[in-house]
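Per reviewer request, we include the raw input and output of the structure prediction for the construct analysed in the revised manuscript.
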Amino acid sequence: MNRIALLAISLLPAFAVNGLADGPLNHSSNPAPLSLTAALQQDSAQQPDDGPTLPEIEVRPPANSDAQPEAVAPSDAAPVLEPPTGQPSGNVTPPADDFTGDFESQPLDPFNANADGGASFSESFPSLSEKTFGGTLSNPTGLNSVVRGDESLFETPRLGTIIDRDDLDRRQATTMYRALQKEVGVMLQQTGNGQLSPFIRGLTGQQVLILVDGIRMNTSILRPGPNQYAATIDPGSIERIEVIRGAESALWGSDAIGGVINVVTRSANPFRGNYLSPELTEIYSTAEASSYTRTAFGGWYGATGVYGGVSYLDVGNLDRGGDFGRQPGTDYQQYSGDLKLQRMLNEDHLLTFAMQHFEQQDLKRSDRFLPFVLGPATDGSVPTQRPTVFDPQQRDLIYGRLEGLLPDDFLFADYYSVTLSGSRTKEASTVDRYASNDPDAVPTRREIGEFDDLGWGTILTAAKDVDVFGKLTYGTDFYSESIDARRVRIDDPTLPGATPTPTDPQYPDDSQADRVGVFTSWHVPLTERLDATTSVRYENINISGTPNFDTLGPTFFKRTYQDWIASVGLGYELTDKVRLVGGYYEGFRAPTIDDLTANKTFLQNNQSVPLVGNLNVQPEHSQTYEVGIKFNTDRFRLQAIEYWTDFSSFISRETIDGARFLTNQTAYLNGTEIDGEYLIRPDLALYGNFYYTYGQITTSDQPISRIPPTQGILGLRFEEPEQRCYVDLYTWMVRRADRYNDSNLGDVRFLPGGTPGYATLNLRTGKSFGNQNQHHLSLSLENITDKYFRVLGSGVDGPGFNAVFGYQYFH
């Protein structure tokens, strides 16, 4: 473990006891809630006394009252959750008090309209302190959030964002690409339409951790570069997406170097009382000639809730900007289903059972189809067509979770969460190899392969408030996976009598991987203004398999990687509206089965085979330093972070004696991320974001491959939440990218001379209607000027002018 982190951790108790800085210690503590049902109704973000606060929530006693209607309990006397008085039935977190009064009557201070406290300034645009990780119906204890606790965007020292259900509806999210698009610091690359690889701080694939309800989606078969598995989630099943930029390996272990994305799925709402509600969503896109249909239902009766849905997406070939027409090899189909059952065992313990199935069919790797493959590449080369189709590409998840509050006198924890999960990632592919790019040519060889990654895991997390010493969160997690793989080769597949011959699969059959980690995270107030969050983790990873090495033939190997990882985040309260933030964060990533054993193509059409020399590669290690500032006034909200990441070990390919080996190199990243909004009036906001990333492999003096170009958005949005009425006009601006790594020069996804910059103009609008606002119509006009563009390194060109029509029904 880095000595700086170890020193900081060892000194924290002394800091907490003695109070070194600018005021007395804050001796207030957060007592355990009376019950989990009460906790569900409380805002976890601690508001300053003179700032906007959420309305006080009344926790109703079980006894009947003349003033309140009696709740009818089921026969087994299970606990019944009642919605707090005056709160809209559909809200998960109680909203702030209604804004009252005309805009002209507000104070003239352009940044702080409610300096004397009182109601929240805007229901349309929640402040940073009103956006909180954790605390949802799917995660009432907060222990499965992206920060493994309840923490607001204003309180956390990291740059975080939350994409909630309303955001997803405004984006008309039919895919994860639409769900995550244009987030600050996140670039979305697509090698094929229907595939997705999010880049955070210039890193992707195995260096970005993706979670679903706090459960790892990353497996040992993720590729080191762009991979498509981030697309295997139905946005219609999502309640919110939590994103943290920068390393979080001390909390989550391997892979969490560039950032962490936690997808939180939808649940039934107990505060609506007993109900059963159907939902219908229809969305049509002209650029993709695509239609998305989702039917769902949610309900709660007594102490039991259920939410579920099914969806289907049919996508045609993509219409590109300019006069380029539709791009072949961009059509596919997908369907999914999800179900979640929840049961309040008593007022303090919640049991959840959930399962998800997602499947894509006839999904093409678009960059290997004519005419895209003709390029040419930057070095003038033209690869040979190699049409590749995935059918199916499939992800399954099933889990059970018990979480709740413990008795006040329990020594080790106030609340806990225990999760047992099972997962499956399946991919079947057909690859046709050609001798030329003649449109009339026939394949000379066909490879049909399949691999099936089956895994299971368990997570145990608990938290304890320790009075003046802050809050301690700790736990352990374990994941195990095994891979079944096979592949056959058919020479001259179009000739009569062609027969399949077994060949080496993409991964060794029966290869295995497991990981176990233990962690602790301590949030402590050092002074009245200064607080710290320090985390420590021990991780052990084992991988094994029997690949067919280039020089040894089939040979069994086993590798073990282990390390200590630490982080320290600091927040200093200049005022109750302004915080300075900073920290030191270590990143860690162990080599995977894909790194050491994959028999596959890479860099578009190059071939990779298992090399004995790759077994010597060691884990990646990074050290990130951050400093930033956050503003959280009534009108002005801003997060700005400057970061520097040093890689003392960065896994990259190096050519040695004509073979491309994985080696440990040194590298660095630095960048700037800014995200903010200014409320012109309570229902009208000017908003935008900006990020800049620079990365270099110092060992080879080469740019890190696929570093995102400088980009940002600027927009103006009107929103009236009661009728879900909004108008959003924005532009997306991206700078030219011409710092190519040498490995990109023969790849036709990288345009010769640099990937041009671009700007698109976009408009979104929508409104609900009906006697209960149960109908909602939406319209998006995207890339209004029909600009041709390509996201850096993508195998799919950007869509041209696109009109997206949406209809939703909620009962």
